[in-house]
Amino acid sequence: MTRTAYVLLRHELRLLGSLALWVGRRTHAGGGGRTFGHARGQGASMFGLAFVCVIELLGTSVMLRDWPTVEQAMPVLDVHTILLVAALHAASAVRPHVLTADTLRIRRAAHVDLRVLLERIASVRRETCTPKSRRTDGELELAVNGQTTLTLELTEPVAHTTFFGRRRQIRVVRFSRGRARPPGGGPQAGVRPRPAARAKRHSALPVR
Questions:
Q1: Which parts of the chain are beta strand (E)?
Q2: Dihedral (Cα; 104, 108, 114, 118), 10-degree rounding
């Protein structure tokens, strides 16, 4: 098995595992701490994408009725696609950001898991940003529904491993965050962000 195939298979298994956790109303927080959900903003778009896949499934079954072999294979691929779309949303829902006494764990679905020591955080500010078309060196953007709501600046870079294993040094992280829940809280499938003052009390971070 090639490196690329292994990475893709591992990611798909993580997505399916997240779907199982979502159905069971459990989270993948690990280690305790306060959790911050970040999946609400993408729910409508993800389910809209799943609906489009369902329409495609119905359409292709009609167009390929004269090619029975292909017609039998396409529903399998389409159902697999729908399952992965649901699993991608589930991965964001069950893998929230986690804040402990000394570390902030920033996550995005099943493919980003960045741990930042609190002592390395220079500032946290609320700002709504749209991801840039070109990646800026030293910045990590984790948009939800096409935007980020928090910008985290670090005193020194932290290492981030990309999807295919390349290491990057990150000094600025832009991400989205919902309301905090205490250790042992339920699924973070969607919570509305609190106003900045209340968010500051719950996050213990210098939000401004």
A1: 34-36, 97-99, 103-108, 112-117, 121-129, 139-142, 148-161, 167-175, 180-181
A2: -20
Burial environment of residue 7 by CB neighbours within 10 A (0 to 12, 13 to 18, 19 or more): middle
- Residue 40 CA to residue 73 CA, distance in Å, equals 34
User: 145 near 41, Cβ under 8 Å?
Assistant: yes
What is the tens place of the pLDDT at every residue in 89-145? 999 999 999 999 999 999 999 999 999 999 999 999 999 988 876 667 899 999 888
Please tell me the least confidently modeled range out of 11-25, 55-69, 84-98, 168-182. 55-69
Strand order in the sheet with 139-142: 121-129, 148-161, 167-175, 139-142
Q: What is the pTM of this model?
A: 0.75
Alpha carbons 142 and 140: distance in angstroms, whole number: 7
Amino acid present at 18: S
